[in-house]
Give the backbone structure.
Amino acid sequence: MNSPRIVGGISRRRFIQYGSLAIGSSIVAACSNGGTETATTSAGSAVGVSSPSGDGIKVGVLYSTTGTIAIVEKSLQDATFLAVEQINEGKGPWSGKQGINGKKIDMVVVNPDSNWDLYNQMAKRLIDEDKVSCVLGCYTSASRKSVLPVFEEKDKLLYYPVYYEGNECSSNVFYTGAAPNQQITDSIPFCAKTFGKRGFFIGSDYIYPKESNRIAKAELVKAGGEVVGDEYAALGTTEFITIINKIKQAKPNFILSNLVGDSIPAFYKQLKDSGITSKDIPIMAYPTTEEEIQAMGPEFAEGHYTSFNYFQTVDTAENKAFVEQFKAKFGPDRVTNGVMEAAYFQTFFMAQAMEKSLKEGKELTTSNLREATRGQVFKAPQGTVKIDPENYHTFLYSRIGKWKADGQAEIVFSTEAAVKPIPWSQALYKGRTCVHSTPDKRGNPIVETKKDLPVELLKI
Amino acid sequence: MIVHTLASIVYLAQSSPSEGFSAIAFTNQLLNGLGIVGILLLTGLGLAITFGVMRIINLAHGEFIMLGAYTTFVLQSVFKMDLLLTIPFSFLFTALIGAIVERTIIRRLYGRPLETLLATWGLSIVIQGVVKLIFTAQLKYVRAPSYIRGNWTLFQAGDQVVQISIYRLFIIFMALLLLALTGYLLYRTALGREVRAVTQNRDMAKCLGVNTNLVDMATFAYGCGLAGIAGTVISSLKSVAPPMGQDYLVDAWMTVVTGGVDKLIGVLAGAFLIGQSNAAIAYFLNDPTARVIVLAAVIVLIRYRPEGLFTIQKRS
């Protein structure tokens, strides 16, 4: 090593060099958050958006726009922004109205930078300093678990738009994504019947895929099938050569995939590259949506399956309008998916509840908002959905899509109406469900019926 | 780390040996290991130049891989170019960015590894941010050429097949080709001699009339260009997104550090050792556990042989 210079205190020149590097990087980081015209912020700061009068209703928006989860959460934020814009300007499903009883929604947008601890801090800050009436946000179960104690301790409401592993029933969360019985329970018997009894389970190595696979394995055994493999890959890994070799060896009839994020395109590509086509061994996936299909190239997904509540191809007037409005706002090459749809319609659940409370002359306190939200019905893009007044999960359609060459899904299975949510897998916990007996009761809501719970469809 | 180790112990306890040992499947796995070796070699090679030869701790190495992948993505989506044809362009583009970085940042920090480390770390954040600003955070799709798809069957008996993916073979071929080319440049040409002279004794080389500024810039740019090629070749097999480089950074470092940084052959040895042991352990256990074990082994190795496996004994 040759170090002719003496390294001492920081010279002014070096200070300027490092300083400008630091400032430059933070400016770029800040800019890179805002793909939309709305002013978003860099990690650790919050900014109020669209408040001309200043007497709007403050709502927290808690999604990461930087870090590993940003790829997904950015699109959830986009869907939320679209819904809020429509509510504020009286467009789309909100046409004929102006805001919420004339008041505008005033978003407080924060960016927790894909860091679970920051989710917790940002939630506290939204509630304590920004005094929001409720929060829309979170994607991963890890972030939900991180903020849950905050919402319970301070008694505030979180609207959570993501399919998840269940086993939770907080009276401070409205779960608008699928519970296990709205995604797993229908797809596993479908696989066993259509493809065969032997299932190979894979997933990313963290809480959601492991729990989801545990439920799916129990469902497969219940359906008379056999689990021939169970493998996990580190979160974010893109090397699947070993898992594919094990799949070749186990010769399953189908693969059940709970991989997330970057791993999905890598797995589908490498599976096809290794000579296994969708005709040989089809993949049934949960977290694989239009967005991932677009990213991997539809040729790799063609013939594989996904089980979800919503696909961009769902044939309703509401969905056509949603897709059109989304593309008009964010670009014609963007696609919509089930999580985005939930992030979109849950904003209307919130708005309808606020409208109801204000019309009745009530203030937007947590208990009023909770009372007004449960039981809300909305004509969502996927069809009519409703928040279950007992367990605060959502009646959703259960659908299975087969991917086509154009990257869109052909819906090969759909329930006739939205299915009543059950937060606990009935294959693992027979008869366990959840009832919040009175809206504000904070005690244990778990109810053990010890009986098989029937499938209930939404009747309007 | 502790959490991971604990998790892997739980794994070890849970995982039961699968239905006996199959020689065919294990052979396949060793061939698969070669696929991993190819990727490690390809991603580690650029680092072997910037760190091994120039002693620059370049934490933005992964971002140069990412830039290579994005170059291919842009050329493919705008000009409908074949992946192989984009290789020279991504080499030139990342080399150019590398040259600019060397001129503006690295040059001022020679001989101060700690500050280089901080500066290149900052640089990696900046590059990721800029790419995210231009292309958004969405995953991108890069198409592989149709003539290097499918599998090459080496042995078949009934339904037992030993085969290797042709694309993986292509990656190994590319990696070895670049290794040979780099070896040739470094040990058989005048420029290579100058590069080695500058890294061994900068002042003396300068006295003897070597343009050290130019040599530094060319060497760093070449290392970055190699990373760009790696990005292009990998892009169609894996995911293209702004944070993708982070994935390869750790692996590339492990490869270079294990093999030893003084000799180019060390990269090959490091890639082979890490790739094959990873594949073998993953076959019997699983991928996350294999990664933990290999990482731990590398740490132990560095503890007892900080200079890596293949090094020249020096007197100084």
User: Anything to note?
Assistant: The longest strand of chain A covers residues 226-233. The first helix of chain A runs from residue 12 to 33. Residues 47 and 108 of chain A are 6 Å apart (CA to CA).
